[in-house]
Design a protein that fits this description.
By secondary structure, the protein is of the alpha+beta class. Helix content is 15%, strand content 40%. The chain has 4 helices and 17 strands. Strands 10, 11, 12, 13, 14, 15 and 16 form a 7-stranded antiparallel β-sheet that branches. Strands 1, 5, 8, 9 and 17 form a 5-stranded mixed β-sheet that branches. Strands 2, 3, 4, 6 and 7 form a 5-stranded antiparallel β-sheet that branches. The relative contact order is 0.14.
């Protein structure tokens, strides 16, 4: 099984300080640039000029998608600014003077013979020459990790200069999609409540991502919706292992516990456990032999471990890649067209 996440950053907005808005074209020009860094990868917005008569600078056309992330990812967002004096032509005479001085310049051209005989030599570099530093000034940065996905805009910038025209906040849209490639399928016995007893039914089970889906036969996957769906992202079981014999005496059987909203008719039973604020629904899965038990338990535990590493159950901002959901949608679409 492989797993990775995809983080999308878009709709970046920078707020300007009050009474520092650019009122006219003759004022000094401030240019802004946003740089996003993750590992060795760097993304940057296009240069933007401080707007006239507005207190908000928008990078509305910029969208950054960072994929193949692991739970320990670290994304840095840096803001840079550049101040330039505005050069405004007073009249058409100034423009024509600049144009004429360019046209009157003497140009020297190489003859065809000399042109083709030029030696392709790299320009000599003076070892004593100093490296030129950038004129851009860092105006704050933001660090984003897994736990920051629970937060919402606006975000606070670190190390923002006090004399900067920018306020120390940044507004952006941040979303995350988790991709799971887990896949497994086979027949098993599915335990369902039947009064005070458990009714066992033979089912074909398919694991796709973090979703368990059940049919009567394998061929039903292409023509019928699942008889039952269990979302492992909602599962509260810490580890999948053989069930306690007090709950079920059947060998090679595991139990999945999934919390749900309380319903008026909920009462405690073998497969229903009523809590103060919710109800825990239990699902029994029985396998034909020890090997199948080990294989399925390993697959399910890997999925649950991955979901815990990404804190999926506690983070509404993390979505699961909709591979299984799209499969169901396609089935329902086909059934509707019949």
């Amino acid at each position: 099984m492989t797993e990775w996440a995809e983080v999308t950053i878009e709709n970046i907005n920078l707020s300007l300080r009050e009474r520092l808005g650019r009122e006219s074209l003759s004022e000094p020009m401030e240019w802004f640039l946003v740089v996003i860094i993750e590992g060795t990868n760097v993304w940057g917005t296009s240069l933007g000029l401080r707007p006239v008569g507005s207190m908000l600078f928008e990078f509305s056309q910029f969208r950054c998608i960072i994929d193949h992330l692991k739970p320990g990812f670290n994304i840095t967002i840096e803001i840079y600014s550049l101040n330039l004096k505005s050069k405004v032509f007073c009249n058409d005479e100034d423009r024509s003077h600049t144009l004429n001085s360019t046209l009157n310049r003497t140009w020297t051209y190489l003859s065809p013979t000399k042109f083709f005989r030029r030696s392709e030599r790299s320009p000599k570099v003076d070892p004593n020459q100093k490296l030129l530093s950038s004129s851009f000034i860092k105006s704050g940065h933001l660090q984003l990790g897994l736990n920051d996905l629970t937060l919402s805009s606006p975000w606070t910038l670190t190390a923002a200069p006090h004399d900067s025209i920018l306020r120390d906040i940044i507004d952006l849209n941040l979303s995350c999609v988790l991709h799971l490639s887990a896949s497994h399928e086979g027949f098993l016995n599915f335990g369902e409540p039947s009064g005070d007893f458990i009714s066992w039914n033979r089912r074909f089970c398919a694991l796709k991502g973090c979703t368990l889906m059940f049919w009567n036969y394998p061929r039903d996957q292409e023509t019928k919706p699942p008889l039952k769906i269990i979302d492992l992202a909602q599962c509260c079981s810490q580890k999948i292992s053989e069930v306690d014999k007090e709950l079920c005496t059947r060998s090679q059987t595991v139990v999945l516990e999934v919390p749900r909203s309380r319903e008026p008719g909920d009462v405690d039973s073998l497969l229903v456990q009523c809590k103060q604020t919710h109800t825990v629904q239990r699902y029994l899965l029985s396998y034909d032999n020890k090997k199948e038990l080990i294989d399925w338990s390993s697959k399910l535990n890997n999925v649950l471990s991955t979901l815990r590493n990404w804190n999926v159950s506690s983070m509404k901002s993390i979505r699961i890649s909709p591979a299984a959901a799209s499969h169901q949608t396609e089935i329902l679409r086909q059934l509707g067209s019949v």
